[in-house]
Design goal:
single chain, alpha+beta, Methionyl-trna Synthetase, domain 2, Isoleucyl-tRNA Synthetase, Domain 1, four-stranded antiparallel beta sheet, three-stranded antiparallel beta sheet, 14 strands
């Protein structure tokens, strides 16, 4: 898909275990983690305490029939397993009994007021995150158990609790810190993680689905406040849900888009484009193969790809030695170039605010102006009587192609690299700025994308549910 990582890690590494245990002990010694005995679900048939994901029932808030023992996937609320209506063991289906067990609790109540002030003063959050977090805080936080009766996971770093483990609620979010420390060690500068975590000028973005809002806006900030000295989240970027052909994605029901199948038929850039252009930033969205085909053919190919290819191919064919940027430009060309220059800060501001659809729209607005400009200039007609006029128009349009090679980079990096090769830009040294006009010599331009045919889409659609 064209993604890259500074580091790719998991929560099963020795480094992660150590970081989590260090944070756990720090909070325990400060009094923010304490022990308490509570009643937990126990399945007599399976002869085990049931972890949260192994007990389900009706949500007490929205009455979703398959809520888990820690959270409802439908309304997103955190719940206690004992609140479930008609709870049952997910393994065997029997009703659980309730037995006493001692566990460690995170004292969330200690941070109720601090979190309220923090949320009230926050900026750059998605609306769903701000509203949902405010609602949770207004309801009042309760202390939450952060250990479970199980033998897999991170051991509790205290004697006498060998049959219990630190729960994912606590340890998974610590992965942001442990990954940073692992990255720092891999660079040979073990303390460089502090440049991000102990720096008030850093800006931390947390990007996730809306079902994870409580963990990023309540649990993790509480851990950070309790630990002390670490940077709190700045931007909570919570996406809404994405469905597939109006149904929820499901691996077990084979209702999914499998990337190996997709990439055997289509360019990865087409999927990146569709997921941004029709993304679930502010409301739930649906991916359909018909819309994928339409958006790719009419927008990505018909507007963006068509503009770039027809400009570059016409230059190469008629001006193999390149086109020189004119010394003087007319009013229409000046306005077009001014828009190109203005698109850089406009798109940048949208991206920094995690409004990716808006950022992409700014880029495609420039493309639409480009198509109108070149249609009006009609260099294919002008070249018959006035070669210089045709060259000037192509140089203006080609300068905007250079701009697009840079502007499209955050969204479609492989397309950006292809365009850069064709217009002589150094892809590895791109800067987010309007490029200086110069002689434009085109190198072997080719269509960026292949049209999506109906039979290819029908084939992918037929794979769903099988």
């Amino acid at each position: 898909m064209g993604f890259s990582y500074d580091i790719y890690t998991k929560t099963t590494t020795e480094n992660h275990y150590q970081v989590v245990q260090d944070v756990f002990l720090n909070l325990y010694h400060k009094g923010y983690i304490y022990t308490k005995t509570e009643e937990l679900p126990y399945c007599g048939s399976c002869r085990r305490f049931l972890p949260d994901r192994y007990i389900e029932g009706e949500c007490p808030t929205c009455h979703f029939s398959s809520a888990r023992g820690d959270q409802c996937d439908d309304c997103g609320r955190l719940i206690d397993a004992k609140q479930l209506i008609d709870s049952r063991c997910k393994i065997c289906g029997s009703s659980p009994e309730w037995k006493q067990s001692e566990h460690f609790f995170l004292k969330l109540t200690a941070f109720q007021e601090d979190l309220k002030k923090w949320v009230a003063g926050s900026v750059g959050w998605r609306t769903n995150a701000k509203n949902f977090t405010t609602e949770l805080l207004n309801q009042g936080l309760i202390d939450r158990a952060i250990t479970r009766d199980t033998e897999w996971g991170i051991p509790i770093p205290l004697e006498g609790y060998e049959s219990k483990r630190i729960y994912v609620w606590f340890e998974a979010v610590c992965g942001y810190l442990s990954a940073s420390k692992e990255w720092a060690a891999s660079t040979g500068k073990a303390d460089s993680w502090k440049d991000f975590w102990e720096n008030d000028d850093a800006i931390h973005y947390y990007v996730h689905g809306k079902d994870n809002i409580p963990f990023h806006a309540i649990i993790w900030p509480s851990i950070l406040l309790a630990n002390g000295g670490l940077h709190l989240p700045d931007r909570i970027i919570s996406s809404e849900y994405l469905t597939l052909e109006k149904k929820q994605f499901s691996k077990s029901r084979h209702w999914a888009v499998w990337l190996p199948d997709f990439l055997s038929e289509f360019d990865s850039e087409t999927l990146r484009y569709c997921l941004v252009a029709s993304g679930c930033e502010t409301s739930d969205a649906d991916f359909s193969w018909k819309e994928f085909s339409t958006k790719t053919n009419s927008e990505l190919i018909g507007n963006f790809g068509n503009y770039i290819h027809r400009i570059l191919s016409f230059i190469q064919k008629n001006f193999p030695d390149g086109v020189s940027f004119p010394d003087v430009v007319d009013e229409k060309a000046a306005g077009f170039l001014e828009l190109a220059e203005e698109t850089f800060p406009l798109a940048a501001s949208a991206i920094e605010a995690a409004r990716f659809r808006e950022g992409l729209r700014h880029v495609f607005n420039l493309v639409e102006h480009g198509n109108r400009y070149i249609n009006d200039a009609a260099p294919w007609t002008a070249i018959k009587d006035d070669r210089k006029k045709a060259e000037d128009a192509l140089a203006i349009a080609g300068q905007v192609v250079r701009c697009l090679a840079i502007l499209i980079n955050p969204f479609l990096p492989r397309s950006s690299e292809r365009i850069c090769k064709e217009v002589g830009l150094n892809f590895s040294e791109l800067k987010w700025e309007y490029p200086s006009p110069s002689l434009l010599k085109v190198n072997d331009p080719r269509p960026l994308y292949k049209r999506i045919e109906d039979d290819s889409v029908s084939k992918q659609r037929s794979l769903l549910g099988k």
